[in-house]
Here is the input.
Amino acid sequence: MTTIFVTERLAAILPRVRDFVQQELFPLESAYLHGSFRALEPTLQDLRSRVKDMGLWAPHLPMEDGGLGLTLTEFGLLSEELGRSPLGHYTFNCQAPDIGNMELLHQFATPEQKHIFLEPLMRGDIRSCFAMTEPEFAGSNPVNMATTATREGNEYVINGHKWFTSSADGASFAVTMAVTNPDEAPHKRASMILVPTSTSGFTLVRNIKIMGEEGDSYASHAEVRFENCRVPVANLLGKEGAGFALAQHRLGPGRIHHCMRFVGISERALDMMCRYAVSRELAPGKPLASKQIIQAWIAESRAEIDAARYMVLHTADGIDKHGAQAMKESISTIKFFVANVLQHVLDRAIQTHGALGITDDTILSYWYRHERAARIYDGPDEVHKTVLARTILKQYGYNVEM
Amino acid sequence: MTTIFVTERLAAILPRVRDFVQQELFPLESAYLHGSFRALEPTLQDLRSRVKDMGLWAPHLPMEDGGLGLTLTEFGLLSEELGRSPLGHYTFNCQAPDIGNMELLHQFATPEQKHIFLEPLMRGDIRSCFAMTEPEFAGSNPVNMATTATREGNEYVINGHKWFTSSADGASFAVTMAVTNPDEAPHKRASMILVPTSTSGFTLVRNIKIMGEEGDSYASHAEVRFENCRVPVANLLGKEGAGFALAQHRLGPGRIHHCMRFVGISERALDMMCRYAVSRELAPGKPLASKQIIQAWIAESRAEIDAARYMVLHTADGIDKHGAQAMKESISTIKFFVANVLQHVLDRAIQTHGALGITDDTILSYWYRHERAARIYDGPDEVHKTVLARTILKQYGYNVEM
Amino acid sequence: MTTIFVTERLAAILPRVRDFVQQELFPLESAYLHGSFRALEPTLQDLRSRVKDMGLWAPHLPMEDGGLGLTLTEFGLLSEELGRSPLGHYTFNCQAPDIGNMELLHQFATPEQKHIFLEPLMRGDIRSCFAMTEPEFAGSNPVNMATTATREGNEYVINGHKWFTSSADGASFAVTMAVTNPDEAPHKRASMILVPTSTSGFTLVRNIKIMGEEGDSYASHAEVRFENCRVPVANLLGKEGAGFALAQHRLGPGRIHHCMRFVGISERALDMMCRYAVSRELAPGKPLASKQIIQAWIAESRAEIDAARYMVLHTADGIDKHGAQAMKESISTIKFFVANVLQHVLDRAIQTHGALGITDDTILSYWYRHERAARIYDGPDEVHKTVLARTILKQYGYNVEM
Amino acid sequence: MTTIFVTERLAAILPRVRDFVQQELFPLESAYLHGSFRALEPTLQDLRSRVKDMGLWAPHLPMEDGGLGLTLTEFGLLSEELGRSPLGHYTFNCQAPDIGNMELLHQFATPEQKHIFLEPLMRGDIRSCFAMTEPEFAGSNPVNMATTATREGNEYVINGHKWFTSSADGASFAVTMAVTNPDEAPHKRASMILVPTSTSGFTLVRNIKIMGEEGDSYASHAEVRFENCRVPVANLLGKEGAGFALAQHRLGPGRIHHCMRFVGISERALDMMCRYAVSRELAPGKPLASKQIIQAWIAESRAEIDAARYMVLHTADGIDKHGAQAMKESISTIKFFVANVLQHVLDRAIQTHGALGITDDTILSYWYRHERAARIYDGPDEVHKTVLARTILKQYGYNVEM
Here is the structure.
């Protein structure tokens, strides 16, 4: 769909990305579903080289860092295209959590930190992870955190327990949230510290089995432990106590990336639904597409996806023009709205496919089970709704307690 | 909400319209709810004069006809503001069905027809109606129509039975759909004919009682009969057999008007919901707004209304730039999407108001009952979904039968 | 539908009631919709006589009081039949609020009170009303009540402001909740007092306009004021401070009555939906019933209504066998569950009828607008859900604050 | 919940079953989720012995066959208890597809077939599978079937391609649907044939990867091929051409078993939701259970599960008393109604658990992904709705085409 948000330079890039995803990545999905991410890595490394050759590598990065220098809105549109395959973002080196970590390091790292951590990340030579969530505390309240980093001489000694440290398996370092200043106000207690995963005291306990799959390598979510894990104070990112502020920074654009990825998945699912509806026959000459309920699902999906895309792109455009703070209300809105559109569309696509839809013979069930998380991570729907209501009700003089 | 669609000239107009609607029209609503439209007309005539003085009269008209020369997108935004009160569009002389009739006459009327019918309509001296729907036939199939206009010499003799001829009570003329060419292909059988309501043989049978109210004057929906009703052939609008083509013409912008009016109603309802939530106490110091479900309703309404507005404005913008044909898919989409948002928001607003919400002490129940029609008129949701699916599935090589 | 709950004696009665409602009351509905309840009263009085002659009068009453001595379950099933018409319960003299008042008086009135108030009520010679809800306080918190009844000698002097005093117009007396013991614990402050509406100081301010209609006589909801309204202390019902306890007593069976009435309305709406679907043609030989979405609505409505009926009957049966306290959880459940089924079924029935569905040419739009209240009166859905959750979570050791 | 359907003998059995499931099977679930069914089999065999010792083995069987001789309603209630764990039915030897096959063989097998196939099945010495669905044809139209069984002398030669042949991995024989009489009317073409899986020409192609898991042994769904697979004609079950009739027979009680299993899963999920809600703290002393939305989910789940259970038990009771044909409408209804309740309850339970809910650290995500099929197998929701509507509309004189 061409919208007013597609700039001229993007109009030149989008079809190339779309073709690449479709021709190179779609065919790999079956191997991914029936094998492992690790087994696919050699193939993906080749494709990554081709992406570099095409000049599309790490498109979110500024031009001086080898990226495409896109606005957030432009990257959003590109993210939609990449989102049509679970292999898209990785192949272009703009996959979460690395993309968020790159953005953080780009803005807040010291030159030395950039040299050690950011540069190989931008080149795609290493991967990283982000260790924030703790199993013992509800994720939506960042004040509850038990991991500590105690300064001893020139080192931080980190102790704590994290989970949903996505992609830790094979990562070179973990951006780690830990309490450094326990006596400060709640939002000023934690810091972000760069912890090489080879550090003694850092243990990957397990790749958590999620929806039936442990996953591996990039495609995994780890439980990790820090036990007297010592890193130099030079590994502090930004200032002491700035952890939450940095985390907030990370969230704004991240929301757009996720939501446009959801839009991409939804478009793929709708496309698959249409293809299957016209080809699957209930009786000779009478395809599924002849049924009014299937038609209604297609129409409802079209409407909801369009609505979702417009909302996210307007929000991105607002952030580009006025900054994230000005778009606070919209940033809360898109997360729950788009995650729910995604779930509805996937559900309809699976139901349309019948028995085939629940097998791994299509990509649909992969998303059905793994994107159930979309309504949970980065804050569950209910928290986002309350946050949005709080912003609105403040204008009516009422202060919602969280 | 300031969007990228608010042009500079509109940014100057919108707050004036909003203030006028809020200060002059909101206070009249209670009288309207407890009295009649007719009783309110003298007051509304005064306000219409003030709107003329303010230079905001008939904003949909081209400048040369005394309007504001707005794009469809701009008028959509203005329509949202007017839609916040059921008295808005009338006071600015851009109310359905007159606005659609003005557009038709402007494009297709002869100079003489313009002089007789259009000019007094544009001045607000008279009102008009549109007689298309027939009780015996499902509205969504325009081929089924029994009203005939048989040519005898210089006259058409019209016989037929219509209903939902909105605002016929007090209207000066009816734009009437009748079969003139029964032997043509289905979509080329009917013509539009201008029938003065004073013509012998034109009978207003009744204002149909709808959701408990007969209504009156502009605020009514009539059943009418044509019995050997004779009008000069000069009253033919456009060409013979062009009725459906003209009706389609009327629908495109009409869809935007309606949908932006729905957005305006939804915004008003959400505003009322917030106001009531912060002021109604469940216990001392504990307002309704403290309840998480109320907060969720506010957030969900905010999200849905934003989504609806973006979709409609993008569609309007597309029509402005590329024409209605290019936006066919979106025009089908917005009708059912926005009508359903409207219904959800109204339902939540009423539930928030509790017992008060079902009384006529607020405007909510008026919309609740009268805008139930939004999912039916101009084609029920189900027809729009099928039409949209047909457009989509055609791209996959399948032809949906309607 | 024959269920295991239909006893032998009821199996003999139900078809007679059904036929009566269908043959005598359905034909009166149009006059009711286009006229007033008062205008219909002479006709209804005749029908009431016939009901007496048939031996079906006041079926909820014990046999010794001239009723049928039904169990709550049996009366529920009969209530479903009566609920198919808005005139059903009135014609059989088991209409709310009189039925609730009869039950109260039967259990708690003194012989003299019974003679003056209950007997003419049971005979259908007079009507009554129930004055509890106050506009200034959220109905769901009965502790918030400003109406007072101060004892002066042998009289209570009542001052206060009530609304939604249903059927006050034409009622002979009002069962009135007022605070008599302000210093007691919250739930022991109020009493029920029998106030003849002819008492000086009792004013019917207005019949509140609800969903566009003021209504009249039995079919109305009044705002009333008590200004130094004096009644003898002998008019106290039960004991001082027992008001809330009595109100709770009134609620149990009342919930069953309402919910089975909702089931009756739903069955009627589904029946109308089916009739219309098979008769309304989209094209020659192709009725609405051929559309899959209409079929799905019929199926979903059938499923939901069955579910609703089973739940209510099981609850009634449980109350009959084990008392209301034992069925507390179910009594909370049915109210919100069945009210929502009703709303869904009505919405589908209207959508199926298209434009006709929003007119008063069928009974559907009457229920659509007036039964919107079903999700509000006797406690809004949200309160019932919280109450139910509280009962459940107590078993897990958690005490939900209301 | 004690309902009127719990007979005295069942009241004695249910708590024993519940305790066994809770104490013996719940603790095994984690091993199942993180390991394989096969690895668990030795443990399960021990438990099966204990079930035999307790006299609860194969409770669906008549007493003379060593079962409990339960009515369908009673078995339904027991099935709910077993359904609380994915290991329940297997441990009691009443798991699908074996239970359906036992019922079939019991009614239609020859003495010799019973000896060879049924008796070891009843003893739990072997397992079986049911080969009907074919990947090339929409499952909801049983007329479309390509597998053939051609008679050659004393043998059937079977050729065909099946999938979703559940539990074929490790099964001793497959009840196989194949066209034996291609020239008969569509519903009289197929027969059921007992095919030992050791027969040459029977190939288990793969355990289909479903929702990320291939599964194994009993917990699997196979694709199988028949290539000139020869079995004696004595292996014909019932008569030639009776395949569909037998399949229908199999469906009636099977529907009750499935639906009560769904109820059991839903109860477990609701229980887990409540337990987690009261124990997970958002802040010290403020558990999840304090949030109104969580409370609403608990209440809605309670209501929906109760509704589902009542519907299924009434249907079972009707079948017990009047036969499956008389309950046709209800049998169509319960499938889609209960499967959707299940999905809603699971979704809420997962959302309540947050990140934990999508991991395999609880049983919820197992059901979330594997019971997505509940809305598809045995006919998708949409087919059941159409079937139900057809039954209803027939009473209004309209014949719905499928």
In short: DSSP finds 13 helices and eleven strands in chain B. Chain B has a mean pLDDT of 95.
